[in-house]
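Lab notebook, design round three. We kept the backbone fixed and only want residue identities now. Task for the bench partner: fill in a sequence for the structure below.
Input structure tokens:
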């Protein structure tokens, strides 16, 4: 076809100012023979290739007996409305030329005058060109590459059979149709608009479509429209290719489906789970399930690929970094650690690792199981076990002490009863009166023992009630001192009260506070054979401090804490020198703590004992006038 001749072979113009414009073109050796003739069929220009091919200097070209007649064809073109046409031209044998040529003729204007450009190609060249076209066609067909070729307006002029399958129709049905119409089944209105704009703007356009095959399978193609030209101003046509991307799409769909399945699995794991990737010495946050993100307030989208130091709580970060930095498990192994969160939850953490051979990196999978209930249960078991041990010790100590403390006064009562019987027979009433006094002391001792036992169990069970009042601690100290003075004097002890002159107001249960002081002073006097028993009160750092010290026999420092336990004394029950069930110190200790005080004891064997009670200083209560 010659309809694009002037644009392809010359300068893109059909109107020229003068013939000299043609003289400016550089002629390549392989150029096709070319002439320009006027309406009288006179040659006004020929290129070098024409002159060599037709020996133009030795023959009159238009006088040759050609088939069809060349002069007649040109004359016919002058009187027609055609701008160009193409024909095969054959020369007689006596001309000594190639037997046949394919001629392309086109009408042009030079200086306003009408002329014709003729290009000659041997039929062998035409055959070669057709062969090349056929080869290209066969290559496209056998290569099974879906291809459509359009003109510059987007009108289809060629399509491979493989594209016909995509369009589900033969070339005869969409030949000379617009590309947009042929693809309308696969395009939305917006797609058609964008494609047409790309054709008008001579731009590349792409679109992915899905096609249902005859078998019912779905195939995916990437349509790509490419403008084809030999120069910026020499537009030829468009080529549309359809690349089969089914495997790629299905692979991506499979990967996405696998990712969704994996995400679903991860998110349905009740334990907390997150993934760390070790890359170039840094630990990056790779992924996590929803439970982890919720508990630790992690924004997954924001946190991905960031250093875990920006994501994890500091203590958890340190525990994990220390574990994988120190042990750095090989693939398939795992590390177990424990982690306590700031919120008081306990987690069992398991860290396993796998190697990403493609990226040559290590991936750590961290799972965290909430074991708070288990830990609390174990702690409760431990407490219960220790309590059981203490109860067993308490039972043993109770039996040992009570057997002694009850048996001794009961034996005394039996003995006194026998003596009283003898005295009655002898009418010795004076002795009976003396024995009755001792008899009362023994009974009081038994009553005190039972009272102490009941009080210890009331404190431990939480059944004891406190009647808190604000009073001057020195009042109680003076009362106890005066009650115990005679007993201390009988033992020749240096018994003193060094009370602070200021009012030392504390908020306590008066009766129980006096019980504490009385019990501690009794013990100090009981276990001191000579030396000092001193009661001191003072104001220290906003507290009222009461100190009871003695120079008695004391006990070993390592045994001090045992004295807080009920039914425990510093001697074994059957060898001790002093009476008592070992409850006085226990009651004093428990009551002090119950009333918000502090109880400290220090002792050294054969040196003495110091007991310090501390209670918060309270504001005095002013009576109403």
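Proposed sequence:
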């Amino acid at each position: 076809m010659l309809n694009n001749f002037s644009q392809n072979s010359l300068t893109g113009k059909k109107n020229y100012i003068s013939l000299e414009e043609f003289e400016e073109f550089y002629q390549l050796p392989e150029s096709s023979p070319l002439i320009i003739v006027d309406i009288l069929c006179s040659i006004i220009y020929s290129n070098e290739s024409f002159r060599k091919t037709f020996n133009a200097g030795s023959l009159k070209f238009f006088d040759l007996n050609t088939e069809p007649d060349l002069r007649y064809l040109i004359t016919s073109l002058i009187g027609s409305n055609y701008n160009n046409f193409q024909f095969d031209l054959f020369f007689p044998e006596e001309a000594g030329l190639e037997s046949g040529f394919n001629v392309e003729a086109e009408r042009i204007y030079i200086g306003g005058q009408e002329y014709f450009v003729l290009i000659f190609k041997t039929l062998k060249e035409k055959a070669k060109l057709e062969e090349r076209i056929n080869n290209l066609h066969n290559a496209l067909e056998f290569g099974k590459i879906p291809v459509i070729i359009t003109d510059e307006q987007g009108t289809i002029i060629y399509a491979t059979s493989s594209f016909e399958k995509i369009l589900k129709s033969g070339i005869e049905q969409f030949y000379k149709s617009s590309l947009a119409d042929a693809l309308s089944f696969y395009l939305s209105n917006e797609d058609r608009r964008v494609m047409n704009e790309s054709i008008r703007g001579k731009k590349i356009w792409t679109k992915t479509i899905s096609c249902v095959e005859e078998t019912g399978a779905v195939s995916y193609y990437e349509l790509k429209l490419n403008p084809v030209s030999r120069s910026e101003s020499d537009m030829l046509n468009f080529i549309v290719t359809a690349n089969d991307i089914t495997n790629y799409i299905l692979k991506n769909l499979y990967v996405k489906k696998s990712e969704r399945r994996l995400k679903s699995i991860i998110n349905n794991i009740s334990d907390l789970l997150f993934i760390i990737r070790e890359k170039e010495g840094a630990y990056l946050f790779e992924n996590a399930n929803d439970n982890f993100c919720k508990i630790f307030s992690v924004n997954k989208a924001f946190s991905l690929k960031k250093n875990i130091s920006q994501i994890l709580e500091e203590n958890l970060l340190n525990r994990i970094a220390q574990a994988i930095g120190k042990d750095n498990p090989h693939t398939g192994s795992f590390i177990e650690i424990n982690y306590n969160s700031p919120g008081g939850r306990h987690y069992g953490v398991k860290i396993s690792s796998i190697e990403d051979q493609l990226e040559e990196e290590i991936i750590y999978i961290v799972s965290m199981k909430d074991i708070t209930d288990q830990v609390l249960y174990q702690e409760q078991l431990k407490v219960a076990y220790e309590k059981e041990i203490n109860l067993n010790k308490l039972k043993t100590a109770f039996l040992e002490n009570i057997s002694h403390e009850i048996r001794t006064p009961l034996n005394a009562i039996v003995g006194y009863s026998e003596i009283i019987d003898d005295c009655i027979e002898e009418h010795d009433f004076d002795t009976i009166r003396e024995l009755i006094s001792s008899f009362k002391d023994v009974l009081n001792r038994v009553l005190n023992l039972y009272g102490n036992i009941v009080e210890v169990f009331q404190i431990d069970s939480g059944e004891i009630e406190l009647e808190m009042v604000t009073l001057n601690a020195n009042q109680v100290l003076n009362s106890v001192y005066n009650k115990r003075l005679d007993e201390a004097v009988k033992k020749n002890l240096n018994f003193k009260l060094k009370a602070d002159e200021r009012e030392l107001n504390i908020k306590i249960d008066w009766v129980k506070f006096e019980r504490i002081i009385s019990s501690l002073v009794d013990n100090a006097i009981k276990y001191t054979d000579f030396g000092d028993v001193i009661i001191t009160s003072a104001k220290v750092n906003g507290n009222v401090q009461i100190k009871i010290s003695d120079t008695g026999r004391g006990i070993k420092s390592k045994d001090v804490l045992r004295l807080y336990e009920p039914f425990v004394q510093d001697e074994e029950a059957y060898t001790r020198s002093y009476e008592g069930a070992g409850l006085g110190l226990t009651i004093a200790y428990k009551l002090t703590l119950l009333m918000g005080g502090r109880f400290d004891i220090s002792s050294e064997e054969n040196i003495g004992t110091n007991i310090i009670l501390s209670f918060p200083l309270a504001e005095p209560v002013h009576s109403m006038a």
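Keep this in mind before ordering anything: The chain has 18 helices and 23 strands.
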